[in-house]
């Protein structure tokens, strides 16, 4: 069961990394479409187009920040904890170990139960 927790956490990290690589590719190869997505994200908040244009200009100069913005506000993804797969494996595996030992305690501690 600990393996399942590990694989789940690892898959989350891999998914985030794959989406981040895709966003970098889109920022480099389809910047106009990505700029329009920024407008689509920010206009419902009531920002004036000239303010959004200045944000877009800032992002053009800082592609890492642009990708961070798109990951959070377009895709709704926050960077996962890189240690999460191990933490999940230990938590799930430990819980199953403790849960499996509890029913055996009477057989170990009470002589007549043997």
For the structure shown, list the relevant keywords.
manganese ion transmembrane transporter activity, transmembrane helix, Ccc1_fam, transmembrane, membrane
Beta-strand proportion = under 5%
Percent helix range? over 70%
The biggest beta sheet, please? none
Low-confidence stretches: none
**Alpha-beta content class:** mainly alpha
**Oligomeric state:** single chain
- What is the total number of structural domains? 1
Given the C-alpha coordinates, what overall shape results?
rod-shaped
Tell me what you see in this structure:
The mean pLDDT is 90. The protein has one domain. Helices cover 77% and strands 0% of the residues. It contains 6 helices and no strands. It starts with a helix and ends in a 5-residue tail after the last helix. The radius of gyration is 24 Å and the shape is rod-shaped.
Task: Summarize the entry for a quick read.
With about 110 residues, this protein is mostly helical. Helices cover about 75% and strands about 0% of the residues.
Helix-strand layout with pairing:
Elements: H1 2-29, H2 31-42, H3 49-61, H4 63-74, H5 84-101, H6 105-109
């Amino acid at each position: 069961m600990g393996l399942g927790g590990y694989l789940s956490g690892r898959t989350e990290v891999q998914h985030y990394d794959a989406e981040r690589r895709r966003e970098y590719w889109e920022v480099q190869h389809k910047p106009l479409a990505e700029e329009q997505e920024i407008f689509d994200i920010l206009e419902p908040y009531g920002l004036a187009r000239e303010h959004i244009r200045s944000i877009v200009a800032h992002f053009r100069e800082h592609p890492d920040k642009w990708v961070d913005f798109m990951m959070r506000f377009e895709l709704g993804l926050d960077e996962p904890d890189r240690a999460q797969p191990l933490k999940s494996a230990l938590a799930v595996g430990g819980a199953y170990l403790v849960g499996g030992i509890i029913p055996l305690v009477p057989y170990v501690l009470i002589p007549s139960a043997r």
